[in-house]
């Protein structure tokens, strides 16, 4: 159940009578006045003259018992009638009053913590090159791929290159199968007719040749592409520099 605050954010609540409440109060006043008039003028229990000691000559003087009885009835009426009216007003008064918000001059209370604007979400983390360097390090460790790519092979004969490439290919293929699960972007064999639908991902499908108009496009599949469905890289040891592709080797005599 929410807590009632009489002052909140520069707003105060002021009690105000509903329109029909005034009519009801006037009605109660008229009824009470009519009752008083009836008691004074036409009360069946007679007049209260207990304080009167002199009577006109020839007037009927009531006995003391009648006087006390009439005065008691008057006392019951004048005590009971206002009490009954007061109880009725007490019971129905909450329904006759409405609360109206008005501006107050005091300094407004600070907004609660829940009403403060939520902070903007943090920017996405920038991708790092650690995984790429780690994968390149695996190719270098198993197949000496970086050494092969960095070396100038123009002076060598094709037969010499072919023998070296066979070993590099075997080792690097094993690394690829162990740490990456690859799947083709488009199904089909090279040379098959394929349809590129509207809304295709340009990073997944590259169009070549005579490209004009709007998709869908129909053409010949030149390469099915590759997508890394799963990557399995080992955890790097703590304290190791992730930028090292291959450590330097020093032989101690």
Structure commentary:
- By secondary structure, the protein is an alpha+beta fold.
- Among the domains are: 8-105, no CATH class; 128-185 and 225-235, no CATH class.
- Helix content is 39%, strand content 13%.
- It contains 5 helices and 7 strands.
- Strand 1 and strand 2 (11-17) form a beta hairpin.
- Helix 3 packs across helix 5 (158-179).
- The chain is elongated and about 140 Å long.
- Mean pLDDT is 76; it is low at 1-11 and 50-55.
Low-confidence stretches: 1-11, 50-55
If you compute it from the alpha carbons, what radius of gyration comes out, rounded to the nearest whole angstrom? 51 Å
- Note the overall shape: elongated
The main β sheet shows up as: 3 strands, antiparallel
The separation of the N and C termini measures: 83 Å
N-to-C series of helices and strands: EEHHEHHHEEEE
Strand content: 5-15%
Which secondary-structure class do the elements indicate?
A: alpha+beta
Q: Taking strands numbered 1, 2, ... along the chain, how are they ordered across the largest sheet?
A: 1-2-3
Q: Number of helix segments? A: 5
Helix content: 25-40%
Mean pLDDT: 76
The beta-strand count equals 7
């Amino acid at each position: 159940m929410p807590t009632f605050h009489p002052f909140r954010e520069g707003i105060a609540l002021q009690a105000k009578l509903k329109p029909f409440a005034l009519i009801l109060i006037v009605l109660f006043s008229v009824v009470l006045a009519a009752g008083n008039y009836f008691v004074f003028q036409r009360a069946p229990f007679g007049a209260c003259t207990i304080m009167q000691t002199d009577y006109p000559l020839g007037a009927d003087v009531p006995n003391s018992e009648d006087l006390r009885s009439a005065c008691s009835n008057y006392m019951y009426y004048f005590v009971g009638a206002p009490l009954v009216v007061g109880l009725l007003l007490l019971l129905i008064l909450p329904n006759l009053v409405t609360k109206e918000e008005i501006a107050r001059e005091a300094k407004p209370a600070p907004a609660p913590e829940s009403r403060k604007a939520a902070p903007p979400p943090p920017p996405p983390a920038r991708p790092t090159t650690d995984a790429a360097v780690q994968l390149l390090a695996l190719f270098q460790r198993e197949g000496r791929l970086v050494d092969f790519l960095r070396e100038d092979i123009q002076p060598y004969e094709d037969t010499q290159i072919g023998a070296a490439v066979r070993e590099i290919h075997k080792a690097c293929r094993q690394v690829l199968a162990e740490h990456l699960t690859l799947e083709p972007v488009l199904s089909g064999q090279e040379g098959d007719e394929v349809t590129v639908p509207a809304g295709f991902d340009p990073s997944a499908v590259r169009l070549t040749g005579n490209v004009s108009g709007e998709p869908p496009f129909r053409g010949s599949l030149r390469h099915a592409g590759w997508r890394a469905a799963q990557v399995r890289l080992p955890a790097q040891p703590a304290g190791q520099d992730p930028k090292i592709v291959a450590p330097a080797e020093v032989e101690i005599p």
